[in-house]
Design brief:
Protein name: 2-amino-4-hydroxy-6-hydroxymethyldihydropteridine diphosphokinase
Number of domains: 1
Pathway: Cofactor biosynthesis; tetrahydrofolate biosynthesis; 2-amino-4-hydroxy-6-hydroxymethyl-7,8-dihydropteridine diphosphate from 7,8-dihydroneopterin triphosphate: step 4/4
Number of strands: 11
Order of helices and strands: EHEEEHEEEEHEEHHE
CATH class: Alpha Beta
CATH architecture: 2-Layer Sandwich
Keywords: ATP-binding, Folate biosynthesis, Kinase, Nucleotide-binding, Transferase
Strand content: 25-35%
GO molecular function: 2-amino-4-hydroxy-6-hydroxymethyldihydropteridine diphosphokinase activity; ATP binding; kinase activity
Bound molecules: adenosine-5'-triphosphate, 2-amino-6-hydroxymethyl-7,8-dihydro-3H-pteridin-4-one
Pfam families: HPPK
Amino acid sequence: MSRAVISAGSNVGDSLGHLRSVVEGFADEIVAVSAVYATPPWGGVEQDDFLNITLIVDGPLSARQWLGRGAELEQAADRTREVRWGPRTLDVDVITVTESGRVVVDDDPVLTLPHPRAAQRAFVLIPWLEIEPEATLWTPEGERSVRELIDALDAAERDAVRAVEHLRPAGGGAS
Ligand SMILES: Nc1ncnc2c1ncn2[C@@H]1O[C@H](COP(=O)(O)OP(=O)(O)OP(=O)(O)O)[C@@H](O)[C@H]1O
Ligand SMILES: Nc1nc2c(c(=O)[nH]1)N=C(CO)CN2
């Protein structure tokens, strides 16, 4: 049993449809889903803007199993890996996992937790703050509130992230 914060992003193909597939894929475990945010590409590769969401899920899965579920959804979206931080139909990242109230720490290349680059990513933090205003993230400098991590980001990057759409959870009617 664990609680995970999941980030999903897309900038190729039917991006909104790909994000909807994530909401549907985690439907039984979803605690909260952010709005869909339009976000400028992070990481220095010139490419189209992304759509991003952050979800909180809770269920009888281990951290590895959350990662596996995300990988299945990426495959279903015909995800290929070409350029690091480059364009993609769907990317599903596990940001942090809590088991019995304790944050899972993992240094394995297959699954590094908490996600080592989440603290620098407005496209993860801003949607996360929307659904969990008191959220914190463990960083190499210690535990930080998501709010203060956002405040520490470049203002232009922060301001460019904006909510554009809402996905209704499964059973919530047409979106
Ligand atoms: N916390 C994590 N969430 C998702 N994938 C992870 C995590 N930690 C390690 N990985 C591994 O990272 C590998 C590469 O992932 P991917 O190609 O999606 O990276 P990326 O999205 O380009 O970059 P980034 O890792 O900076 O988000 C995956 O095969 C996965 O096993
Ligand atoms: N805005 C934004 N930028 C990114 C994203 C993403 O989901 N959103 N994913 C990436 C893959 O590593 C690289 N850059």
